[in-house]
Write a structure and sequence with these properties.
3 strands, alpha+beta, 36% helix, 89 residues, 3-stranded antiparallel sheet, Double Stranded RNA Binding Domain, extended, 3 helices
Length: 89
């Protein structure tokens, strides 16, 4: 019986995504999955935005072509963000 149950369980893949979180002028938190074009969402709180971006990523991964492309190039080499000051007249 256990073997029958185990045979029906699909193996899952673990993918890692870099997500950019920003706060807009209305105070909402906007989350963007940087390596999935068009994959973004928002939430009233940072926690809500985190939950919603996971849902949005799963929806984007349902597109088989996108999923295969992402598996090949799963984790881009994230360097970081820096505030740059520029003087101009």
């Amino acid at each position: 019986m256990l073997n029958l149950v185990m045979s029906k369980i699909k193996p899952t893949k673990v993918l890692h995504f870099n997500v950019l979180f920003e706060q807009d002028e209305d105070g909402y938190f906007v989350a963007t999955a940087s390596n999935i074009p068009g994959c973004y969402t928002q939430g009233k709180t940072l926690e809500e935005a985190k939950l919603r971006i996971k849902e949005a990523i799963k929806v984007c991964l349902k597109d088989e072509k996108s999923c295969k492309r992402l598996e090949k190039n799963q984790r881009p080499n994230f360097i970081g963000f820096e505030t740059i000051t520029v003087q101009y007249a």
